[in-house]
Amino acid sequence: MVTPPPVTETQVLRVAKTVRQDRWAQVGPVVLGTAGVVTFLIAWQLYAQFGPVSNEYLPYPAEVIGQFFGNFALTSFWASVGATLWAWFLGLVISAIAGLVLGVIIGSSRFLRRATFTVIEFLRPIPSVALIPIAALAFGPQLEAELLVIIYGCFFVVLIQTLYGVADVDRVAHETTLTMGLNWGQRARHLVVPTLLPYFFTGVRLSATISLILAVSAELIIGTPGLGQSVAQAQLNGAPVAMYALIVTAGVLGIIINTGAKIAERKALFWHESVRAEVPA
Predict the structure, then answer these.
(1) What confidence score (pLDDT) does residue 7 get?
(2) How many degrees, rounded to 5, is the angle at CA 116 between CA 112 and CA 120?
(3) Per-residue 3-state assignment (H helix, E strand, C coil) for the chain
(4) CA–CA distance from 102 to each of 160, 183, 222, 254 (Å)?
């Protein structure tokens, strides 16, 4: 029987260091995130108490947080949240489908890419909020006006990502599939779709947050039902605590949506190397 070599002090210290690093990798983001929130609240409290802005316009964080949780008992609050999320969902789904379909069609044809390049490069830098006056005139304070702003802002994000995905198909692999005699459907399934999906889901994830921002902005300016309209009403009624609590609600929704989009992206792309690289060995 072979006797194992004795463990040296250096090896023990190395193992202990690795254990500490693994433990910090698990709890570190939570600790740092909590510390960041606490620091922000302390800074807010100090600025509200000693800063140049009156408490009439900048309430203390404790008042806002109390109102934030108090809103959970109000039916009107949930109606506003529901209206915003419905517009967010519809706008995101329509822009994702339209961007994917047109992106695949345009990206698959060199002629269409060249023919549409100038138009796309001209339209996509135009901010969606610039369309708010047009949407208000065309539809009034209706859901259609809100959707016009959301879809315009999110569509080009998904479209550009899809175009990059189609263009990133490996040329050698493409020629290999042609040599193997694969038809269009087989090439799309085994070559184009696996290359395209990471780009597409990145576009959808980015659009998920953009859609919420544009939904609240459109409600705030156009007056369609939702969180933005409630913020405007609180401001007009001179209720800064309620107004800040609704703004905090929009921020919390943004965190939830962004986290959900990241989880959905990792679930859908579990097979891709970019996701597998995140899984610790």
Answers:
(1) 73
(2) 145
(3) CCCCCCCCHHHHHHHHHHHHHHHHHHHHHHHHHHHHHHHHHHHHHHHHHHCCCCCCCCCCHHHHHHHHHHHHHCHHHHHHHHHHHHHHHHHHHHHHHHHHHHHHHHHCCHHHHHHHHHHHHHHCCCCHHHHHHHHHHHHCCCHHHHHHHHHHHHHHHHHHHHHHHHHCCCHHHHHHHHHCCCCHHHHHHHHHHHHHHHHHHHHHHHHHHHHHHHHHHHHHHHCCCCHHHHHHHHHHCCCHHHHHHHHHHHHHHHHHHHHHHHHHHHHHCCCCHHHHCCCCC
(4) 10, 21, 29, 28
- The b-or-e profile of 201-237 (16+ CB within 10 A means b, else e) is bbbbbbbbbbbbbbbbbbbbbbbbbbbbbbbbebeee
Query: What are the tokens at 171?
Result: 């040329």
- Token code pair at residue 279: 């899984």
In this prediction the pTM is 0.82
What's the pLDDT score for residue 251? 94
Binned average pLDDT, 10 residues per bin, the chain of 281 residues: 70 77 78 90 90 85 94 95 96 95 90 91 90 90 93 94 87 80 78 88 93 94 93 93 95 94 88 66 42
Can you tell me the distance from the alpha carbon of 86 to that of 142, in angstroms, rounded to the nearest whole number? 13
Question: Rounded to the nearest 10 degrees, how much is the dihedral formed by the CA atoms of 149, 151, 106, 174?
Answer: 140
Judge whether 176 and 225 are in contact, CB under 8 Å: no
Residue-level length of the chain: 281
